[in-house]
Amino acid sequence: MNEGQEKFMSFIMERVVEGKHEAAKALLAESFGKQASGEFNMEYLQSFMPRMVDLLKPEAVEQVMSIMQEFGPSHTN
Description:
- The protein is an all-alpha fold.
- It has one domain.
- It is 65% helix and 0% strand.
- It is globular, with a radius of gyration of 11 Å.
- The N and C termini lie close together (10 Å).
């Protein structure tokens, strides 16, 4: 995991619903793996986002979605 991914994980983990942290870590690990293999694309992002939203505190959803859209597939490394 690179520094940017570590910062993103920390940002997300602060906004995850209590009790959902392991699921969030697994989902983020999956996305980082997709980035490393070059498979992180808009199709994957569209499947990732709803799964991540399910793990977030309601008040954090809009902020996280905005960040994910800004740094989507064009910023994979």
